[in-house]
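Format notes (please read before filing issues)

Several people have asked whether sequences and structure tokens are stored in separate files. They are not. Every record keeps both together, in the order shown below: the sequence lines, then the token lines. Line labels are part of the format and must not be stripped during preprocessing.
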Amino acid sequence: MDGLRCHSHSSPGLARNRPAEVTVVDERTLEAFPAPARLVPEQHAIERAEALALSQAVAALPLTFREVLILRELEELSYKEIARIADIPIGTVMSRLARARALLAHSPLLRTVGESAAGGTR
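Then the structure lines:
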């Protein structure tokens, strides 16, 4: 097979968003991109343990810190949107986020997982 070829379509909307020229992708081009990493069972177990520990550490945060952290990091809301939802000033959003992140950084739950993954002891 010569490779994959991408052609622009006849639809005016699609043509605007696609290059006019033909692009040929051959094996040498594909070799330039690294193959996706495959997880070995140990890596998968470590990632699962880390995700569980993070979830537990977030759940252990006081509600006021957990609320703004989840709205910012998981829901990807702006500080202004969080302030409106939580009915607090933007400065309070910022200080609660900083405090929540500091609490997570010093969480014994996360430290234990990190040490285990590095081969340390509990």
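For reference, the curators noted about this record: The helical segments are 12-17, 27-31, 41-60, 63-74, 79-86, 90-105, 108-117. The two ends are 54 Å apart (CA to CA).
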